[in-house]
Design a protein that fits this description.
By secondary structure, the chain is of the alpha+beta class. The chain has helices spanning 28-31, 52-68, 72-77, 89-100, 102-112, 116-125, 135-140, 160-165, 180-197, 202-211, 213-226, 239-256, 285-292, 296-302, 326-334, 338-341, 355-361, 366-372, 402-407, 429-436, 440-447, 501-508, 512-519, and strands at 3-8, 11-16, 274-278, 318-322, 343-348, 385-390, 416-422, 460-466, 475-478, 490-494, 532-536. It has a three-stranded antiparallel beta sheet. Helix 4 (89-100) crosses helix 12 (239-256).
Length: 544
Amino acid sequence: MQKLLAVLFLVPVFFLSACSSTSPRDDASIAHKGPTDINSTTAGPDIGKSPESSSAAVSDEVEQHAQKETDVWKRIGSDLRLTRDISEKTTASKLAWFARHQAYIDRVSDRATPYLYYIVEELEKRDMPLELALLPIVESAYNPFAYSPSRASGIWQFIPNTGKHYGLKQNWWYDGRRDIVAATDAALNYLQKLHKDFNGDWMLALAAYNSGEGNVGKAIRRNEKAGKPVDFFSLKLPRETRSYVPSLLAISEIVAHPEKYNITIKPIKNEKYFEQVNINSQIDLAMAAELSGLSIEELYTLNPGFNRWATDPIGPHRLLIPVTKTPAFENRLASLSSADRIKWQRHKIQKGESLGRIATHYRTDVSTLKQINRLKGNTIRTGHSLLIPTAQKPLKHYSLSLDSRRYKGLKSIGDGQRYVYTIKRGDNLWDIGRHYGISVKQLCAWNDISSKSILRPGKKLEIWVAEETDKTAKVVHVAANKTSSGKPGHISYQVLEGDSLWLISQQFGVSIKQIKKWNNLAKKRHLQPGQLLDIYTGTPPKGA
Protein backbone atom coordinates (compact mmCIF):
# COMPACT_ATOMS: atom_id res chain seq x y z
CA MET A 1 0.00 0.00 0.00
CA GLN A 2 1.19 3.51 -0.59
CA LYS A 3 -0.01 7.01 0.11
CA LEU A 4 -0.97 8.90 -3.01
CA LEU A 5 -2.23 12.35 -3.86
CA ALA A 6 -4.47 12.05 -6.82
CA VAL A 7 -7.41 13.55 -8.63
CA LEU A 8 -10.20 11.06 -9.01
CA PHE A 9 -12.47 12.01 -11.86
CA LEU A 10 -12.69 15.85 -11.64
CA VAL A 11 -12.43 16.48 -7.90
CA PRO A 12 -9.08 16.74 -6.06
CA VAL A 13 -9.04 14.18 -3.26
CA PHE A 14 -6.36 12.85 -0.93
CA PHE A 15 -6.02 9.15 -1.59
CA LEU A 16 -4.31 6.26 0.18
CA SER A 17 -3.68 2.80 -1.19
CA ALA A 18 -4.13 -0.25 1.01
CA CYS A 19 -1.68 -2.78 -0.28
CA SER A 20 1.96 -2.71 -1.21
CA SER A 21 3.14 -2.52 -4.77
CA THR A 22 5.56 -5.33 -4.12
CA SER A 23 4.28 -8.07 -1.86
CA PRO A 24 6.37 -11.20 -1.35
CA ARG A 25 4.09 -12.83 1.36
CA ASP A 26 5.06 -16.51 1.05
CA ASP A 27 3.96 -18.24 -2.14
CA ALA A 28 1.01 -15.86 -2.23
CA SER A 29 3.05 -13.66 -4.52
CA ILE A 30 3.03 -16.42 -7.14
CA ALA A 31 -0.73 -16.26 -7.29
CA HIS A 32 -0.73 -12.49 -6.91
CA LYS A 33 -0.44 -11.48 -10.59
CA GLY A 34 -3.57 -10.53 -12.55
CA PRO A 35 -6.98 -8.72 -12.79
CA THR A 36 -10.56 -8.93 -14.06
CA ASP A 37 -13.37 -6.41 -14.39
CA ILE A 38 -16.85 -6.43 -13.06
CA ASN A 39 -19.65 -3.92 -12.89
CA SER A 40 -22.38 -6.38 -11.96
CA THR A 41 -23.04 -9.29 -9.67
CA THR A 42 -24.23 -12.81 -10.35
CA ALA A 43 -26.48 -13.92 -7.52
CA GLY A 44 -28.44 -11.39 -5.50
CA PRO A 45 -29.05 -7.69 -6.10
CA ASP A 46 -26.48 -5.17 -7.27
CA ILE A 47 -24.70 -3.84 -4.21
CA GLY A 48 -25.95 -0.47 -3.13
CA LYS A 49 -28.72 -0.39 -5.78
CA SER A 50 -31.39 -2.74 -4.40
CA PRO A 51 -34.59 -1.66 -2.65
CA GLU A 52 -34.46 -2.06 1.11
CA SER A 53 -37.14 -4.77 1.13
CA SER A 54 -35.31 -6.84 -1.48
CA SER A 55 -32.01 -6.41 0.35
CA ALA A 56 -33.56 -7.47 3.66
CA ALA A 57 -35.17 -10.54 2.08
CA VAL A 58 -31.91 -11.60 0.48
CA SER A 59 -30.06 -10.97 3.76
CA ASP A 60 -32.48 -13.22 5.69
CA GLU A 61 -32.19 -15.93 3.06
CA VAL A 62 -28.39 -15.77 3.11
CA GLU A 63 -28.31 -15.87 6.93
CA GLN A 64 -30.54 -18.97 7.03
CA HIS A 65 -28.38 -20.67 4.42
CA ALA A 66 -25.17 -19.71 6.25
CA GLN A 67 -26.45 -21.31 9.43
CA LYS A 68 -27.00 -24.63 7.63
CA GLU A 69 -23.42 -24.84 6.35
CA THR A 70 -20.93 -26.68 8.55
CA ASP A 71 -17.84 -25.54 6.60
CA VAL A 72 -16.94 -21.85 6.23
CA TRP A 73 -15.35 -22.49 2.82
CA LYS A 74 -18.67 -23.88 1.54
CA ARG A 75 -20.48 -20.95 3.12
CA ILE A 76 -18.27 -18.61 1.08
CA GLY A 77 -18.43 -20.68 -2.10
CA SER A 78 -22.22 -20.80 -2.13
CA ASP A 79 -22.65 -17.03 -1.81
CA LEU A 80 -20.13 -15.42 -4.18
CA ARG A 81 -21.29 -12.25 -5.93
CA LEU A 82 -18.59 -11.10 -8.33
CA THR A 83 -18.75 -12.13 -11.98
CA ARG A 84 -15.89 -14.50 -12.85
CA ASP A 85 -14.88 -14.83 -16.48
CA ILE A 86 -12.57 -17.83 -16.14
CA SER A 87 -11.78 -17.73 -19.85
CA GLU A 88 -10.06 -14.36 -19.46
CA LYS A 89 -6.34 -14.95 -20.05
CA THR A 90 -4.85 -13.80 -16.74
CA THR A 91 -7.65 -15.28 -14.65
CA ALA A 92 -7.29 -18.60 -16.47
CA SER A 93 -3.55 -18.58 -15.82
CA LYS A 94 -4.06 -17.93 -12.11
CA LEU A 95 -6.75 -20.58 -11.93
CA ALA A 96 -4.40 -23.12 -13.49
CA TRP A 97 -1.72 -22.22 -10.96
CA PHE A 98 -4.03 -22.75 -7.97
CA ALA A 99 -5.28 -26.02 -9.44
CA ARG A 100 -1.69 -27.32 -9.63
CA HIS A 101 -0.80 -26.40 -6.06
CA GLN A 102 -2.80 -28.46 -3.58
CA ALA A 103 -0.06 -28.02 -0.95
CA TYR A 104 -0.43 -24.24 -1.15
CA ILE A 105 -4.20 -24.49 -0.67
CA ASP A 106 -3.59 -26.71 2.36
CA ARG A 107 -1.21 -24.18 3.93
CA VAL A 108 -3.58 -21.30 3.36
CA SER A 109 -6.49 -23.21 4.87
CA ASP A 110 -4.43 -24.09 7.95
CA ARG A 111 -3.44 -20.45 8.45
CA ALA A 112 -6.95 -19.13 7.84
CA THR A 113 -8.56 -21.51 10.35
CA PRO A 114 -8.55 -19.13 13.38
CA TYR A 115 -9.62 -16.07 11.39
CA LEU A 116 -11.93 -17.00 8.51
CA TYR A 117 -15.23 -17.34 10.36
CA TYR A 118 -14.75 -13.96 12.04
CA ILE A 119 -13.97 -12.21 8.74
CA VAL A 120 -16.96 -13.79 6.98
CA GLU A 121 -19.24 -12.68 9.82
CA GLU A 122 -17.92 -9.11 9.59
CA LEU A 123 -18.45 -9.05 5.82
CA GLU A 124 -22.02 -10.28 6.13
CA LYS A 125 -22.80 -7.66 8.78
CA ARG A 126 -21.84 -5.02 6.20
CA ASP A 127 -23.46 -6.83 3.24
CA MET A 128 -20.11 -6.99 1.45
CA PRO A 129 -19.11 -9.73 -1.06
CA LEU A 130 -17.72 -12.85 0.61
CA GLU A 131 -14.97 -12.93 -2.01
CA LEU A 132 -13.29 -10.31 0.16
CA ALA A 133 -12.69 -13.00 2.80
CA LEU A 134 -10.32 -14.52 0.23
CA LEU A 135 -8.39 -11.28 -0.30
CA PRO A 136 -5.86 -12.13 2.47
CA ILE A 137 -4.93 -15.21 0.42
CA VAL A 138 -3.80 -12.93 -2.39
CA GLU A 139 -2.30 -10.36 -0.02
CA SER A 140 -0.46 -12.51 2.50
CA ALA A 141 -1.39 -16.19 2.10
CA TYR A 142 -3.20 -15.58 5.40
CA ASN A 143 0.12 -15.18 7.18
CA PRO A 144 -0.44 -12.70 10.05
CA PHE A 145 3.31 -12.00 10.21
CA ALA A 146 3.70 -11.32 6.47
CA TYR A 147 5.89 -8.30 5.77
CA SER A 148 6.75 -6.83 2.38
CA PRO A 149 9.72 -4.75 1.16
CA SER A 150 7.37 -1.78 0.94
CA ARG A 151 6.67 -2.18 4.68
CA ALA A 152 3.17 -3.65 4.32
CA SER A 153 2.27 -5.87 7.26
CA GLY A 154 -0.39 -8.34 8.41
CA ILE A 155 -2.97 -10.41 6.57
CA TRP A 156 -4.44 -7.26 4.97
CA GLN A 157 -0.99 -5.79 4.17
CA PHE A 158 -1.38 -2.21 5.39
CA ILE A 159 1.63 0.09 5.03
CA PRO A 160 2.32 2.35 8.05
CA ASN A 161 0.74 5.58 6.77
CA THR A 162 -2.46 3.98 5.52
CA GLY A 163 -2.72 1.98 8.71
CA LYS A 164 -2.48 5.16 10.79
CA HIS A 165 -5.05 6.88 8.57
CA TYR A 166 -7.49 4.07 9.32
CA GLY A 167 -6.84 4.11 13.05
CA LEU A 168 -4.30 1.31 13.36
CA LYS A 169 -2.01 2.13 16.27
CA GLN A 170 1.68 1.29 15.75
CA ASN A 171 4.34 1.53 18.44
CA TRP A 172 7.17 -0.43 20.04
CA TRP A 173 4.80 -2.79 21.86
CA TYR A 174 1.99 -3.19 19.36
CA ASP A 175 1.22 -3.03 15.63
CA GLY A 176 -2.47 -2.79 14.81
CA ARG A 177 -1.80 -3.73 11.19
CA ARG A 178 -1.29 -7.31 12.40
CA ASP A 179 -4.17 -7.26 14.89
CA ILE A 180 -6.82 -9.52 13.34
CA VAL A 181 -9.80 -7.61 14.72
CA ALA A 182 -8.46 -4.06 14.29
CA ALA A 183 -6.94 -4.64 10.84
CA THR A 184 -10.04 -6.42 9.52
CA ASP A 185 -12.20 -3.50 10.62
CA ALA A 186 -9.80 -1.04 8.96
CA ALA A 187 -9.57 -3.08 5.74
CA LEU A 188 -13.35 -3.35 5.39
CA ASN A 189 -13.76 0.36 6.09
CA TYR A 190 -11.22 1.13 3.39
CA LEU A 191 -12.78 -1.26 0.88
CA GLN A 192 -16.23 0.24 1.50
CA LYS A 193 -14.82 3.70 0.88
CA LEU A 194 -13.23 2.55 -2.38
CA HIS A 195 -16.45 0.85 -3.45
CA LYS A 196 -18.29 4.15 -2.96
CA ASP A 197 -15.55 6.21 -4.66
CA PHE A 198 -15.70 4.03 -7.77
CA ASN A 199 -19.49 4.12 -8.11
CA GLY A 200 -20.17 0.63 -6.78
CA ASP A 201 -17.60 -1.17 -8.96
CA TRP A 202 -15.88 -3.76 -6.76
CA MET A 203 -13.31 -4.59 -9.44
CA LEU A 204 -12.05 -1.02 -9.52
CA ALA A 205 -12.22 -0.84 -5.73
CA LEU A 206 -9.99 -3.92 -5.48
CA ALA A 207 -7.58 -2.49 -8.04
CA ALA A 208 -7.36 0.69 -5.96
CA TYR A 209 -6.77 -1.32 -2.78
CA ASN A 210 -3.72 -2.77 -4.48
CA SER A 211 -2.23 0.16 -6.37
CA GLY A 212 -3.93 3.23 -4.91
CA GLU A 213 -6.91 5.35 -5.89
CA GLY A 214 -4.63 7.74 -7.73
CA ASN A 215 -3.39 5.14 -10.21
CA VAL A 216 -6.88 3.86 -10.94
CA GLY A 217 -8.30 7.38 -11.22
CA LYS A 218 -5.58 8.40 -13.71
CA ALA A 219 -6.19 5.27 -15.79
CA ILE A 220 -9.91 6.03 -15.92
CA ARG A 221 -9.32 9.63 -17.05
CA ARG A 222 -6.86 8.48 -19.72
CA ASN A 223 -9.42 6.10 -21.20
CA GLU A 224 -12.24 8.63 -20.97
CA LYS A 225 -10.12 11.16 -22.83
CA ALA A 226 -9.33 8.58 -25.52
CA GLY A 227 -12.95 7.44 -25.80
CA LYS A 228 -12.12 3.97 -24.48
CA PRO A 229 -14.05 1.80 -22.00
CA VAL A 230 -13.26 2.32 -18.33
CA ASP A 231 -13.87 -1.20 -17.04
CA PHE A 232 -11.05 -2.92 -15.18
CA PHE A 233 -9.64 -4.93 -18.10
CA SER A 234 -9.61 -1.91 -20.39
CA LEU A 235 -7.49 0.20 -18.04
CA LYS A 236 -3.72 0.50 -18.21
CA LEU A 237 -2.76 -0.30 -14.63
CA PRO A 238 0.48 -1.40 -12.92
CA ARG A 239 1.56 -4.95 -13.75
CA GLU A 240 0.92 -6.27 -10.26
CA THR A 241 -2.59 -4.82 -10.22
CA ARG A 242 -3.36 -6.39 -13.61
CA SER A 243 -2.56 -9.70 -11.93
CA TYR A 244 -4.03 -8.94 -8.50
CA VAL A 245 -7.76 -8.96 -9.21
CA PRO A 246 -7.68 -12.09 -11.44
CA SER A 247 -5.88 -13.87 -8.60
CA LEU A 248 -8.85 -13.13 -6.34
CA LEU A 249 -11.32 -14.27 -9.00
CA ALA A 250 -9.32 -17.44 -9.58
CA ILE A 251 -9.20 -18.45 -5.92
CA SER A 252 -12.92 -17.61 -5.70
CA GLU A 253 -13.57 -20.08 -8.51
CA ILE A 254 -11.53 -22.73 -6.69
CA VAL A 255 -13.52 -22.19 -3.49
CA ALA A 256 -16.82 -22.31 -5.40
CA HIS A 257 -15.98 -25.50 -7.33
CA PRO A 258 -12.99 -27.29 -5.78
CA GLU A 259 -13.99 -30.71 -7.13
CA LYS A 260 -14.02 -29.35 -10.69
CA TYR A 261 -10.27 -28.65 -10.36
CA ASN A 262 -9.39 -31.78 -8.34
CA ILE A 263 -8.68 -29.64 -5.29
CA THR A 264 -9.57 -30.55 -1.72
CA ILE A 265 -9.99 -27.65 0.69
CA LYS A 266 -9.51 -28.55 4.34
CA PRO A 267 -12.81 -27.81 6.11
CA ILE A 268 -13.01 -24.98 8.64
CA LYS A 269 -15.89 -25.21 11.09
CA ASN A 270 -18.64 -22.68 10.48
CA GLU A 271 -18.58 -21.50 14.08
CA LYS A 272 -16.88 -18.88 16.22
CA TYR A 273 -13.23 -19.73 16.86
CA PHE A 274 -12.28 -17.07 19.41
CA GLU A 275 -13.68 -14.67 21.97
CA GLN A 276 -12.35 -11.17 22.65
CA VAL A 277 -11.41 -11.14 26.33
CA ASN A 278 -10.94 -7.90 28.26
CA ILE A 279 -7.71 -8.21 30.28
CA ASN A 280 -7.88 -4.66 31.79
CA SER A 281 -4.11 -4.05 31.95
CA GLN A 282 -0.71 -5.20 30.67
CA ILE A 283 0.20 -8.87 31.05
CA ASP A 284 3.23 -10.99 30.19
CA LEU A 285 2.24 -13.17 27.23
CA ALA A 286 3.98 -16.17 28.76
CA MET A 287 1.67 -15.81 31.76
CA ALA A 288 -1.36 -15.33 29.49
CA ALA A 289 -0.45 -18.50 27.59
CA GLU A 290 -0.17 -20.42 30.85
CA LEU A 291 -3.54 -19.14 32.09
CA SER A 292 -5.26 -19.99 28.81
CA GLY A 293 -3.72 -23.41 28.35
CA LEU A 294 -2.30 -22.36 24.97
CA SER A 295 1.24 -22.63 23.71
CA ILE A 296 3.02 -19.31 23.29
CA GLU A 297 2.90 -19.85 19.50
CA GLU A 298 -0.87 -20.34 19.56
CA LEU A 299 -1.34 -17.20 21.63
CA TYR A 300 0.81 -15.08 19.27
CA THR A 301 -0.99 -16.53 16.24
CA LEU A 302 -4.31 -15.31 17.62
CA ASN A 303 -2.78 -12.03 18.83
CA PRO A 304 -0.09 -11.20 16.25
CA GLY A 305 -0.43 -7.47 16.87
CA PHE A 306 1.70 -7.68 20.02
CA ASN A 307 5.34 -7.11 19.10
CA ARG A 308 7.04 -8.04 22.34
CA TRP A 309 6.88 -10.30 25.38
CA ALA A 310 3.87 -8.52 26.88
CA THR A 311 0.78 -6.65 25.79
CA ASP A 312 0.96 -2.88 25.29
CA PRO A 313 0.91 -1.11 28.69
CA ILE A 314 -1.56 1.46 27.36
CA GLY A 315 -3.72 -0.97 25.37
CA PRO A 316 -5.52 -2.45 23.62
CA HIS A 317 -6.27 -4.46 26.75
CA ARG A 318 -7.80 -7.48 25.08
CA LEU A 319 -6.69 -10.92 23.97
CA LEU A 320 -8.27 -13.28 21.47
CA ILE A 321 -8.73 -16.65 23.17
CA PRO A 322 -10.31 -19.80 21.66
CA VAL A 323 -13.96 -20.16 22.63
CA THR A 324 -13.28 -23.49 24.33
CA LYS A 325 -10.53 -21.97 26.49
CA THR A 326 -12.22 -18.68 27.39
CA PRO A 327 -14.14 -19.59 30.59
CA ALA A 328 -11.09 -21.13 32.28
CA PHE A 329 -8.87 -18.24 31.15
CA GLU A 330 -11.25 -15.61 32.53
CA ASN A 331 -11.50 -17.42 35.88
CA ARG A 332 -7.74 -17.78 36.24
CA LEU A 333 -7.15 -14.19 35.15
CA ALA A 334 -9.62 -12.91 37.75
CA SER A 335 -7.71 -14.66 40.52
CA LEU A 336 -4.31 -13.39 39.34
CA SER A 337 -2.86 -10.56 41.41
CA SER A 338 -1.72 -7.42 39.60
CA ALA A 339 1.83 -8.05 40.84
CA ASP A 340 1.90 -11.42 39.05
CA ARG A 341 0.85 -10.05 35.66
CA ILE A 342 4.29 -8.56 35.03
CA LYS A 343 7.66 -9.32 36.58
CA TRP A 344 9.39 -6.21 37.97
CA GLN A 345 13.07 -5.57 38.55
CA ARG A 346 14.88 -2.71 40.24
CA HIS A 347 17.92 -1.54 38.27
CA LYS A 348 20.66 0.55 39.88
CA ILE A 349 21.99 3.05 37.33
CA GLN A 350 25.68 2.59 36.55
CA LYS A 351 28.14 5.23 35.38
CA GLY A 352 27.84 5.84 31.64
CA GLU A 353 24.41 4.23 31.23
CA SER A 354 21.56 5.85 29.33
CA LEU A 355 17.84 5.19 29.25
CA GLY A 356 18.21 3.85 25.72
CA ARG A 357 20.87 1.34 26.70
CA ILE A 358 18.95 0.22 29.80
CA ALA A 359 15.72 -0.17 27.79
CA THR A 360 17.52 -2.23 25.15
CA HIS A 361 19.06 -4.48 27.80
CA TYR A 362 15.69 -5.23 29.40
CA ARG A 363 13.79 -5.50 26.09
CA THR A 364 11.51 -2.57 26.78
CA ASP A 365 11.29 0.99 25.43
CA VAL A 366 12.36 4.38 26.75
CA SER A 367 8.82 5.82 26.91
CA THR A 368 7.70 2.94 29.15
CA LEU A 369 10.65 3.48 31.50
CA LYS A 370 9.90 7.20 31.70
CA GLN A 371 6.20 6.63 32.33
CA ILE A 372 6.72 4.02 35.07
CA ASN A 373 9.45 6.00 36.81
CA ARG A 374 7.77 9.40 36.32
CA LEU A 375 10.72 10.85 34.44
CA LYS A 376 10.11 14.09 32.54
CA GLY A 377 13.29 13.95 30.50
CA ASN A 378 16.01 11.49 29.49
CA THR A 379 18.46 12.51 32.21
CA ILE A 380 19.24 9.81 34.79
CA ARG A 381 21.71 9.87 37.69
CA THR A 382 24.33 7.30 38.60
CA GLY A 383 23.37 5.42 41.76
CA HIS A 384 19.64 6.04 41.43
CA SER A 385 17.29 3.13 40.71
CA LEU A 386 14.72 2.45 38.00
CA LEU A 387 11.73 0.13 38.24
CA ILE A 388 11.65 -1.97 35.08
CA PRO A 389 9.06 -4.43 33.68
CA THR A 390 10.87 -7.59 32.57
CA ALA A 391 9.93 -10.74 30.72
CA GLN A 392 9.30 -13.81 32.84
CA LYS A 393 10.98 -16.09 30.29
CA PRO A 394 14.09 -15.89 28.06
CA LEU A 395 13.68 -14.21 24.65
CA LYS A 396 13.63 -17.53 22.78
CA HIS A 397 10.47 -18.56 24.68
CA TYR A 398 8.50 -15.75 23.00
CA SER A 399 9.06 -17.44 19.67
CA LEU A 400 6.77 -15.26 17.55
CA SER A 401 7.58 -11.90 19.10
CA LEU A 402 9.10 -9.30 16.78
CA ASP A 403 12.53 -9.72 18.40
CA SER A 404 12.43 -13.51 17.99
CA ARG A 405 11.28 -13.31 14.38
CA ARG A 406 14.08 -10.87 13.58
CA TYR A 407 16.53 -13.04 15.49
CA LYS A 408 15.64 -16.01 13.30
CA GLY A 409 17.09 -14.04 10.42
CA LEU A 410 20.47 -14.77 11.99
CA LYS A 411 20.30 -18.48 11.16
CA SER A 412 22.74 -18.00 8.32
CA ILE A 413 25.37 -16.62 10.70
CA GLY A 414 24.55 -18.43 13.94
CA ASP A 415 23.63 -16.99 17.33
CA GLY A 416 23.84 -13.24 17.65
CA GLN A 417 23.77 -10.07 19.70
CA ARG A 418 21.56 -7.00 19.19
CA TYR A 419 23.10 -3.55 18.67
CA VAL A 420 21.63 -0.14 17.96
CA TYR A 421 23.31 1.91 15.22
CA THR A 422 22.79 5.69 14.96
CA ILE A 423 22.54 6.90 11.37
CA LYS A 424 25.05 9.58 10.35
CA ARG A 425 24.84 12.07 7.51
CA GLY A 426 25.87 10.39 4.27
CA ASP A 427 25.11 6.85 5.46
CA ASN A 428 23.45 4.33 3.16
CA LEU A 429 22.19 0.82 3.81
CA TRP A 430 24.80 -0.82 1.59
CA ASP A 431 27.73 0.75 3.46
CA ILE A 432 26.22 0.01 6.87
CA GLY A 433 25.59 -3.60 5.87
CA ARG A 434 29.13 -3.94 4.52
CA HIS A 435 30.61 -2.61 7.76
CA TYR A 436 28.65 -5.10 9.84
CA GLY A 437 28.92 -8.02 7.45
CA ILE A 438 25.17 -8.28 6.84
CA SER A 439 22.92 -7.81 3.83
CA VAL A 440 20.67 -4.87 3.01
CA LYS A 441 17.77 -7.33 3.00
CA GLN A 442 18.50 -8.27 6.61
CA LEU A 443 18.77 -4.61 7.65
CA CYS A 444 15.42 -3.86 6.05
CA ALA A 445 13.70 -6.85 7.66
CA TRP A 446 15.03 -6.05 11.13
CA ASN A 447 14.01 -2.39 10.96
CA ASP A 448 10.70 -2.45 9.05
CA ILE A 449 12.09 -0.36 6.21
CA SER A 450 12.51 -0.81 2.47
CA SER A 451 15.76 -0.66 0.53
CA LYS A 452 14.60 2.72 -0.82
CA SER A 453 13.83 4.27 2.57
CA ILE A 454 15.44 7.63 3.31
CA LEU A 455 17.98 7.38 6.13
CA ARG A 456 17.69 10.37 8.44
CA PRO A 457 20.69 11.32 10.61
CA GLY A 458 20.06 10.55 14.25
CA LYS A 459 17.57 7.75 13.61
CA LYS A 460 18.39 4.30 14.99
CA LEU A 461 18.85 0.98 13.20
CA GLU A 462 18.61 -2.36 14.97
CA ILE A 463 21.44 -4.70 13.97
CA TRP A 464 22.03 -8.32 14.95
CA VAL A 465 25.51 -9.80 14.58
CA ALA A 466 27.05 -13.15 15.41
CA GLU A 467 28.35 -13.30 18.96
CA GLU A 468 31.78 -14.37 17.85
CA THR A 469 32.04 -11.11 15.92
CA ASP A 470 30.36 -8.80 18.40
CA LYS A 471 33.41 -6.59 18.59
CA THR A 472 33.27 -6.06 14.85
CA ALA A 473 29.72 -4.79 15.37
CA LYS A 474 31.22 -1.77 17.10
CA VAL A 475 34.32 -1.53 14.93
CA VAL A 476 33.95 0.18 11.60
CA HIS A 477 37.47 -0.53 10.38
CA VAL A 478 40.36 -2.56 11.75
CA ALA A 479 43.79 -2.01 10.20
CA ALA A 480 44.81 -5.16 8.37
CA ASN A 481 48.47 -5.10 9.37
CA LYS A 482 49.63 -6.56 12.68
CA THR A 483 52.96 -6.34 14.42
CA SER A 484 55.38 -9.21 14.05
CA SER A 485 54.54 -10.26 17.60
CA GLY A 486 50.91 -10.80 16.52
CA LYS A 487 49.51 -7.93 18.57
CA PRO A 488 46.64 -6.00 16.91
CA GLY A 489 47.33 -2.54 15.62
CA HIS A 490 45.04 0.43 15.06
CA ILE A 491 41.27 0.32 15.51
CA SER A 492 38.81 3.00 14.40
CA TYR A 493 35.95 2.73 16.90
CA GLN A 494 32.49 4.18 16.27
CA VAL A 495 30.82 5.64 19.36
CA LEU A 496 27.37 4.20 20.14
CA GLU A 497 24.49 5.82 22.00
CA GLY A 498 25.17 5.51 25.73
CA ASP A 499 28.92 5.02 25.31
CA SER A 500 31.34 6.72 27.69
CA LEU A 501 35.12 6.95 27.74
CA TRP A 502 35.14 4.63 30.74
CA LEU A 503 33.09 1.94 28.94
CA ILE A 504 35.25 2.17 25.82
CA SER A 505 38.47 2.02 27.85
CA GLN A 506 37.21 -1.10 29.64
CA GLN A 507 36.28 -2.76 26.36
CA PHE A 508 39.71 -2.33 24.80
CA GLY A 509 41.86 -2.52 27.93
CA VAL A 510 43.29 0.98 27.62
CA SER A 511 43.06 4.05 29.85
CA ILE A 512 40.78 7.06 29.51
CA LYS A 513 43.88 9.25 29.46
CA GLN A 514 45.24 7.35 26.45
CA ILE A 515 41.98 7.67 24.52
CA LYS A 516 41.92 11.41 25.18
CA LYS A 517 45.53 11.77 24.07
CA TRP A 518 45.11 9.72 20.88
CA ASN A 519 42.03 11.73 19.86
CA ASN A 520 42.90 15.23 21.16
CA LEU A 521 39.78 15.27 23.30
CA ALA A 522 39.16 18.32 25.45
CA LYS A 523 38.45 17.70 29.12
CA LYS A 524 34.75 18.61 28.96
CA ARG A 525 34.02 17.44 25.44
CA HIS A 526 31.09 14.99 25.25
CA LEU A 527 31.15 11.94 22.99
CA GLN A 528 28.69 11.99 20.11
CA PRO A 529 27.03 8.84 18.66
CA GLY A 530 28.66 8.06 15.32
CA GLN A 531 31.93 9.78 16.29
CA LEU A 532 35.11 7.84 15.37
CA LEU A 533 37.88 7.30 17.92
CA ASP A 534 41.40 6.05 17.26
CA ILE A 535 42.25 3.15 19.58
CA TYR A 536 45.70 1.51 19.80
CA THR A 537 45.64 -1.90 21.44
CA GLY A 538 49.26 -2.60 20.53
CA THR A 539 52.21 -0.23 20.47
CA PRO A 540 50.94 3.14 19.21
CA PRO A 541 52.93 5.02 16.57
CA LYS A 542 55.28 7.74 17.70
CA GLY A 543 53.47 10.94 18.58
CA ALA A 544 50.17 9.14 19.19
